[in-house]
Amino acid sequence: MNLDRTKKIVSQLIENNITAYEVAQNTTLTAYAVQKIKDGDSKKPRESTLKEIENFLQKKLSNELNFKEDDISISELAIDVYKNWNRLMEEDIFKEKIDNLVKDGIILKLQEIINKND
Description:
By secondary structure, this protein is mainly α. It has eight helices and no strands. Helix 5 crosses helix 8.
């Protein structure tokens, strides 16, 4: 349903402090149109509009997760996640994030780090 999808998009925009202007600068959408969606003034956003915002969010959020392999804190985090994997996968939010990371290939980077530290 588009309402749930729209709520998810708005939630991601707010949680990540992404402005309508930033979305507009990186898509073919106007800041006004994106702001109407964020404010809930657009009751039935077009499928193509939602898809474009989702594509932008996916790229933006996955780029923010890029890291250097020699970053010690990331290595430590990867090992902690690995050790607590089963418990973490019981959490819906974590599971959803991991599913997205798998799709983006970022999990492969984490596995490489873990293998280097074993």
